[in-house]
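Take a look at this chain, tokens included, and explain the fold to me:
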Amino acid sequence: MSHFLLQCITLDGIDIPHEDQVMQLCEAGAKWIQLRMKNSSKTEVKQVAQSVKPFCDDHGAILLINDYLDIALQTGVGGVHLGRMDMDWKEARKVAGPDLIIGGTVNSLRDARFALASDCLDYVGVGPFRFTSTKERLAPVLEKRQLEEIVEFLGDLPKVVIGGVQPDDL
């Protein structure tokens, strides 16, 4: 997992269903995909996860579920991404065991300290990099120096930049 530099995240509010987004990402060679369905019920998220997991497996892609540890465990996907308000990270690790990938969101140096102290995350998403309309209650956009400070503080913990990242940023 730590060698994957790009985490692809599905989008709400576009004309491509989440299932198709995941399949297109797999076909394009993506190896680390987060199923992020903020405007869907848990039942819908679970159905989509069950539907696309075999496709991800066939393409060697790790599928992560955004927000829902229970769905990640029920569907046998590779991991879960949890924001600070979704579930306590240490509790998630206790429930999930050592093999499920658990990622967390870091919006500040304070969050970064908490992430390292928790000693249970496999990676963190650091941001937001810029404004994005895909997130309600968006944390303040990080200035370049803040982002650099957080990334340096996190040391060897794998990290991805999140929030408003565009293809030209890669």
About this structure: The helical segments are 18-27, 42-58, 69-75, 89-96, 109-118, 144-154. The domain at 8-169 is CATH 3.20.20.70 (TIM Barrel). Strands lie at 8-9, 32-35, 62-66, 79-82, 101-106, 123-126, 159-161.
